[in-house]
From TrEMBL:
Pfam families: Cys_Met_Meta_PP (PF01053). The modification N6-(pyridoxal phosphate)lysine is found at residue 202. One of its GO terms (biological process) is methionine biosynthetic process. This is Cys/Met metabolism PLP-dependent enzyme. It comes from Thomasclavelia ramosa DSM 1402. CDD domains: CGS_like. It comes from the Bacteria.
Length: 389
């Protein structure tokens, strides 16, 4: 841990903790893309450190070192997508095992859990912001808790320290999908989580140009098991994508700073808008998780969800945005707007969606690094504010 915290965060986005890893051939300043499937053996039963790229590859190892360093992990495995990372983690469990998860989750995670349910894993969807109700779901078969905080898309905040204490008391693994805040704002492993997952497609990459994922852990034994499964199931990230992710992470800190600055301004603007009925952003003091988030994270991120007066206005906004792109996904330098009900959360059961407020007037905004005045002007024209003046 000490080694990984030697430099400040901004520096750690650019340089691995082990500076010897920077000694690339010919003194190359950026890591080469080792586009090779195999590595020759120097002698019988000998290895130069890498043998076969499904198992390990120098470009991937460099990326994994950077992410471990940012998350305070002992090891990280880079996967071909966020879903590949979550699938890999589920391989740690056996038929009959029970997992407790947040009732508000990325829609793809819910879809994967349904698939796994057919094969014998059991899941309970619980309000993880409420510890009392949560405790009642723990049973002898319970093996893990899977949460997102803030959750996707309603931005609910769960108390990581309290949940981790509860998990320790009951010998449950705490798995946190840290995609929404990224390690720049939040380090769940340092708050007691056992495993941290990222859809690196989002903030870590930051440019909407690759699909990638990662699994980090602070425990050596667990790390060994995850490596073993990773090598076996073979969903590791390709060398080229590893290179692009390393490149993206270099600017993680400055992107996140600028994205959050824009998001705070936009959330305040939305909050004052007469046709917006509710804003879900943990950076607003009235957000129910504001204090907990402040205690466990270094910021609020740049994801905002909001409800407008009716579905006509929601559709009008989606059809009229010009600078902001109507597209799924999040976390990149480009601002995106989504309609969770029919896109990211289309597969979430309707009654759960309704309970959470993911209805036909609910929109999700991923705020990018464009100029704030341009973003606000685009929102104003998409809402039709200018027409009414
Ligand atoms: C996008 C996303 C995922 C899935 O990641 P992919 O890289 O798209 O496979 C998982 N969790 C969260 C919170 C996400 O936003």
């Amino acid at each position: 841990m000490e080694k990984s915290m030697k430099y400040e965060f901004e520096t750690r986005c650019i340089h691995p903790a082990n500076l010897e890893l920077k000694q690339h051939p010919y003194g190359a300043v950026s890591i080469p893309i080792y586009q090779t499937a195999i590595f020759s053996h120097p002698g019988i039963g000998e290895s130069r450190g890498h043998n076969y790229s499904r198992e390990s590859n120098p470009t991937r190892a460099y990326l994994e070192e950077i992410i471990s360093n940012l998350e305070g992990a002992v090891d990280t495995v880079a996967c071909s997508s966020g879903m590949a990372a979550i699938s890999l983690v589920l391989e740690l469990f056996s038929s009959g095992d029970h997992l407790i998860c947040s009732n508000d989750l990325y829609g793809g995670s819910t879809r994967l859990f349904t698939l796994q349910q057919n094969k014998g894993l059991k899941f309970s969807y619980v309000d993880t912001t409420n510890l009392k109700s949560f405790k009642q779901y723990i049973r002898p078969q319970t093996k893990a808790v899977f949460i997102e905080t803030p959750s996707n898309p309603t931005m609910q905040i769960s108390d990581l320290k309290k949940i981790s204490a509860l998990c320790q008391a009951h010998k449950l693994l705490l798995i946190v999908d840290n995609t929404f805040l990224s390690p720049y704002f939040q380090n769940p492993l340092l708050l007691g989580a056992d495993i941290v997952i990222h859809s690196a497609t989002k903030f870590l990459s930051g440019h909407n140009d690759i699909i990638a994922g990662s699994i980090s852990t602070g425990d050596h034994k667990l790390a060994k098991r995850i490596r073993e499964v990773s090598k076996t199931v073979g969903n590791s990230l390709s060398p080229l994508d590893c290179y692009l992710l390393i490149r993206g992470i270099k600017t993680l800190a400055i992107r996140q700073k600028s994205q959050q600055e824009n998001a705070l301004k936009i959330s305040n603007w939305l909050n004052r808008h007469p046709r917006v009925s509710k804003v879900y952003y943990p950076g607003l003091i009235e957000h129910p998780g504001y204090e907990i988030n402040r205690n466990q994270a270094r910021g609020f991120g740049s994801m905002i969800a909001f409800s407008v007066e009716n579905h006509f206005l929601a559709k009008k906004i989606l059809e009229n945005v010009q600078l902001i792109t109507y597209a799924e996904s999040l976390g990149g330098v480009e601002s995106l707007i989504t309609y969770p009900m029919i896109q990211t959360h289309g597969d979430v059961p309707a009654e759960i969606r309704a309970k959470l407020g993911i209805t036909d007037n609910f929109l999700r905004l991923s705020v990018g690094i464009e100029n704030i005045d341009d973003l606000l002007a685009d929102l104003r024209q998409a809402f039709g504010d200018n027409d009414e003046i």
